[in-house]
Amino acid sequence: MSGRRPAYRPVPTKDPRRVAYDLLRAVAERDAYANLTLPGMLRERGLDERDRALATELGYGTLRAQGLLDAVLAACLDRPLETVDATLLDVLRLGAYQLLRTRIPTHAAVNTSVDLARTVLTHGQVSVVNAVLRKVSAYDEGSWLERVAPTMADDSAAHLAQQYAHPAWIVRAYRDALGGDWAETAAALAADDERPRVHLVARPGRIGRDELVAISGGAPGPWSPYAVRLEGGDPGALAAVRDARAGVQDEGSQLAVLALTGTALDGSDRSWLDLCAGPGGKAALLGALAAEREATVLALEIQPHRARLVEQATRGLPVRTVVADGRQPPGDGHDRVLVDAPCTGLGALRRRPEARWRRQPTDIPPLARLQRELLTAGLQAARPGGLVGYVTCSPHLAETRAVVADVVRRTGAEQVDARGALPGIPDLGDGPAVQLWPHRHGTDAMFIALLRTPRP
After folding, report:
1. Which is it for strands 271-274 and 296-301: parallel, antiparallel or unpaired?
2. What is the pLDDT along the chain (456 residues), one digit of tens a residue?
3. Contact, 119 vs 18, CB < 8 A?
4. From CA 12, how far away is CA 51, in angstroms rounded?
5. What's the DSSP call for residue 277?
6. Measured between alpha carbons, how far is 427 from 100 in angstroms, rounded to an integer?
7. What stretch of H or E contains 199?
8. Among 15, 107, 207, 274, which has the highest number of CB atoms less than 10 A from its own CB?
9. Which are the contacts of 367, defined by CB distance < 8 A and separation ≥ 6?
10. H-helix or E-strand containing 383?
């Protein structure tokens, strides 16, 4: 038979492995975000609940485990991994994930991968899939780790990088943020590989948390008075989410808003600013809280399409959205300012499984410069004695404590102990900033610092 790739032909839309494969291709070819892409795929293709769960596990799991899968596949191929056709590699990754990290029987994992290959690869590549996956199936995950990973004694970061499928530079960043504790670093990495629960926020004044628990089937979050945690499902199917009485928002993100709004402030408290508001989750919670206090929120977003998302999320709330660069905010004299700065997103890797392989250490310096500029602008936009909350969804020290320390040194701002605004939450560290963690708090690894502007 010819080695020519067959013309595209759709397979049954209810095939969860094809959905997972298409997700991998969307991430690779279009730089798509898996957590934004997969829900639409599942709805469009009409999978039942069981197959939705399988497609999600295979798609997200394969993306998370890519580093380990590639190391195993490299040991089973007769050519360098970088020379393997991208579509073939995704089929191999998907099959290897089933063999190493699921309870799917070996014959089923290999046979279904070969069936998938027949629909998306050439005839010659199909035989490669069969041969390589049979080699992968010779050992379980633990045995493969012994073959492809250095020992902890030889290279702790490289060992954990393979064991938990993270780039070694992220392993080292986590270790640094956790004070050099390798055991807790391993726990943090393991939490990144767990399937995250869906977190909802019951927007105050629009829906009570008890009502949201009842209609969603979830459970109250342990830390935020507005949080509800779901085991799974499509939150977009809930009427309360569709009509913006509730929203999808990690509990750590909610706590960042609550830390800023729950800290005492002398003097006026009517003018709030969200300096980097897109896509609008924090702005919506700020707006709901502002409505209860007769305050208003100015939400800035530099990207017009993200500004439209902010407008949609905050409709009916005392929030005015403006397309503007947060480094040059219009006006000043705000009582409270939220600086939710763009960052690497290393704190949300469990929700964005492809991000760990996209980000590079070279991303850090330009982001840190932007973060310092935004925090400085936030302090300048606040009134004397006003409060600024600096938030990143990253535990990397260069994006968190180093940024705050540098700006405090240059501006004379006073750092406020953020732990006081989050009573009852354990393991917040030594302060004054707070670092949340998935393995400690079940939230994204959100960093929260509070700064008070100098008084005259």
Report:
1. parallel
2. 334 444 434 344 579 999 999 999 999 999 999 988 998 898 888 888 899 999 999 999 999 999 999 999 999 999 999 999 999 999 999 999 999 999 999 999 999 999 999 999 999 999 999 999 999 999 999 999 999 999 998 999 999 999 999 999 999 999 999 999 999 999 999 999 888 899 999 999 999 999 999 999 999 999 999 999 998 778 988 999 999 999 999 999 999 999 999 999 999 999 999 999 999 999 999 999 999 999 999 999 999 999 999 999 999 999 999 999 999 999 899 999 999 999 999 999 999 999 999 999 999 999 999 999 999 999 999 999 999 999 999 999 999 999 999 999 999 999 999 999 999 999 998 999 999 999 999 999 999 999 999 987
3. yes
4. 13
5. -
6. 34
7. strand 198-202
8. 274
9. 342, 343, 344, 399
10. strand 382-392
Distance CA 186, CA 164 (A): 8
Judging by DSSP bridges, how do beta strands 334-340 and 382-392 pair with one another? parallel
Distances in Å between the alpha carbon of 281 and those of 224, 241, 246, 274?
15, 12, 10, 11
Helices (H), 31-155: 34-45, 49-64, 66-76, 86-101, 106-120, 123-136, 141-148
Q: Identify the helix (H) or strand (E) that includes residue 300.
A: strand 296-301
Nearest-angstrom CA–CA distance, 6 and 29? 19
Any bridge partners for residue 320, and if so which? 298
Domains and CATH numbers, the chain: 16-141 (1.10.940.10), 198-248 (3.30.70), 251-452 (3.40.50.150)
Residue 229 class from Cβ within 10 Å (0-12 exposed, 13-18 middle, 19+ buried)? Answer: buried
* Phi-psi label, residue 323: left if phi above 0, alpha if psi -120 to 50, beta otherwise: beta
For residue 143, what are the contacts with CB-CB under 8 A and spacing of at least 6? none
Of 444, 319, 352, 343, nearest to 403 by C-alpha is 343
Of 91, 140, 89, 86, nearest to 111 by C-alpha is: 91
Tokens found for residue 33: 């975000």
Can you read off the two tokens belonging to residue 52? 């939705």
Strands 447-452 and 382-392: antiparallel
Q: Is 190 helix (H, G, I), strand (E, B) or coil?
A: helix
